Amino acid sequence: MDKNKKFLYVLKIIIFSILFFTAIYFESAQQQRLYVLTGIFVGFLANNIGKYYIKNQKKLYFMSFILDAALIYAMESYSRLLINYFFHSFYIIVLLEASLMLEQRKGIIVGTVTVLVSMIKYVYLIYYKFNMSNISQMLFFLMLNVLILIIAAFAQHNKQEKERKDILYKELLDAHKKLKEYTDVQKKLSVIEERNRIARDIHDTLGHNMTALIMQLQMAEHYMKTDSSKSEQLLTNSLKTAKDSMSGIREVVETLRGKESALSPDKAIKILVDEFSEKTGAVIDLKITGEVTKNYGANTAIYHILQEALTNAVRHGNATRIWMELNYSNNFIKFNIKDNGSGAEVLNEGFGMKGIRERVKFFNGDVEFASGDGFYINGFLNLNDNFIGNDTCVVLHSEDNND
C-alpha cells in the first residue's frame, strides 16, 4: 500500500512538472516573470513532496492543500494571460487529491475553497471581456469542478462506509470467536457440574440406604442368638432396604431422563423420615412451617440435604435422636438440623457435607456446620434467583419400584 502511494506521489509531481513547463512555453516567460513563476512552482513542488511525510499530521496535511490553492493562484497572477489553462488544470488535480485523501468533511472544505479560488480569474476575464463565450467557459469550468467535487465526495463516502463495514465485520468475527470460546467453556463447566450432580445424587441415595442397611444387619446379627424372630424380621427389612437402594439408583437414572415421581415435597420428606427412622431405630422430630414452594430444584435440593444430614447423624455421630425443622417463605427455605450424636472435635468436610454446601451455593444460600453436644446444620436456600419450574415432584425411592 505504501509503495502504491509513493508511486502516485511521484506520478503527480511528474504531471505537475509537465503542465508547468507547457504553461511556461505558451507564456513565453522570460527573465523576471520566468524566475518568479519558477520560484513559486518550486515552492509548490516542495509543498506537495512534503505532503508525503506529514500525512499523519492531520492539521498540517489539511493546511498544505489550502497552501496549494494559494500557490496556484499566485502562479496564475504572474501569468501574462488572463486564463492559462495549464496552470488552471492544477486546481483539478488538487481538488481530486483533497477529496480522496482527506476526511470527507475536510475534503469538501478544501474542494470548495479550491473551486472558489479557481473562479477568481474567470471573474477578471468576464470583467475585462464580457461576452457569452467567457461566461460559458466560466460556467462550464465551474460545473466541471463541482461535478468532480461531488463524485470525489461520493467516492470518499463509499470508501469510509467500506472501512466502517470492515471494522464492524472484524469486530463481529472477534465477538463470534469470543462467544464460541465462552460457549466451549460453558459446555465444559456444564459437563463438570452435571457430573458432580450425578455423583451427589448417587452418593445421597446409596449412602442413605447403605447406612440403614448396615445398622439393620448389625442388629440382626445381635439378635441372631437371642431372638431369632427379631433377627429374621431385621433380615427381611435389610432385603427391602437393598431393593430400595436398587430402586433409588433406577430413579436417579429416570431423573436424568426427565422423569420424576409424583409426590408432593412435604409428603416425600415425611416418607423419607419415617422410613429412615424405621430402618435405623433413630427417633426423628420433623417440623415443617410455611407454604411449600413450587420450585422443583429447591425442593429436590432440600430433600437431598435432609437425606445426607440423617445419614451423617447416624453413620458418623451414632445419633439416636434427630431434630429437623423446615421453614418455607416466598424468598427463602430455612433448615435447622441437630442430633444427640457424638459430634466431632475437628470438622473435616467429607463428600456428603461438600454436597450439602454445593447444593446450598447453587441457590445463593449459606450453610453452617457446628459440633458441640451433638451436631448442628443451619442454612437457607435463596429462591429469588433460581426459580427452575412449577413441578412439585421430588425423587423418592418407594415400594412401588421394588421390581
Structural write-up:
The protein has 403 residues and is of the alpha+beta class. 70% of the residues lie in helices and 9% in strands. The chain has ten helices and five strands; from the N terminus they run ααααααααβαββαββ. It has a five-stranded mixed beta sheet, with helices on one face. Residues 386-403 have low confidence and may be disordered.
> What's the total helix number?
10
The percent range for helix content is: 55-70%
For the biggest sheet, the summary is: 5 strands, mixed
Q: Please mark out the parts with pLDDT under 50 across 5 or more consecutive residues, or reply none.
A: 386-403
As a percent range, the share of strand residues is 5-15%
Shape: rod-shaped
Number of E-type strands: 5
Order of helices and strands: HHHHHHHHEHEEHEE
Overall radius of gyration: 46 Å
Spatial sequence of strands, sheet with the most strands? 1-2-3-5-4
Mean pLDDT: 79
Report how far the terminal alpha carbons are from each other. 79 Å
Which structural category do the helix and sheet elements fall into? alpha+beta
What is the structure about, briefly put?
The protein is α+β, with helices and mostly antiparallel strands. Helix content is 70%, strand content 9%. The protein has a five-stranded mixed β-sheet, covered by helices on one side.
Label this structure with key terms:
single chain; 403 residues; alpha+beta; five-stranded mixed sheet; 10 helices; disordered C terminus
List the helices and strands and how they pair.
Elements: H1 2-27, H2 31-54, H3 58-77, H4 85-101, H5 104-128, H6 132-223, H7 228-256, H8 265-280, E1 283-289, H9 296-315, E2 321-328, E3 332-339, H10 351-362, E4 366-371, E5 375-382
Parallel strand pairs: 1-2
Antiparallel strand pairs: 2-3, 3-5, 4-5
Helix pairs in contact: 1-2, 1-4, 2-3, 3-4, 3-5, 4-5, 4-6, 5-6, 6-7, 6-9, 8-9, 9-10
